[in-house]
Amino acid sequence: MKILLVLLLPIYILYYTYDYFKNGSITFGNIPTIIEFLIFIFFIIILFYESMQENSEVVLYKRINFWVCVGFLFYTSGNFFYILLVEKFFDAQMSIKNQLILIYSIVTIIKNIIFSLSFLIKETPQITNNSISYVPDLDLEPTRSNTN
After folding, report:
1. Residue 14 falls within a domain, yes or no?
2. For the whole model, what pTM was predicted?
3. What is the mean pLDDT of residues 77-92?
């Protein structure tokens, strides 16, 4: 996945630069933003998959990084649909614009609540078999003296 990220980042930067100079700096490019949100959602889902594959004694939802990722996933998916709707209803009535602002505000407030709750979680330090260091050939048997 790191290789995919390294490959996608320059491609995205080139496309964003192309879109910026094609449309001019005055307009907001919706397509690069939509692509950015899709890439972000894709990598968050992959992060969830990798964290579910770990063998850990700590439950997944008791980790801080899980809730931070849930907050980012909620925020990016909510803004993804917001950007799609803004493009469709850009020249619409004021009531539709107010509804879009309400949707954006609700998504942002829920994201902030999830982030705030994630900092209340206390993770217990995890002890794995790999973290115990000992010398395998060490003989800890008590020594016996030869008394005959």
Report:
1. yes
2. 0.66
3. 78
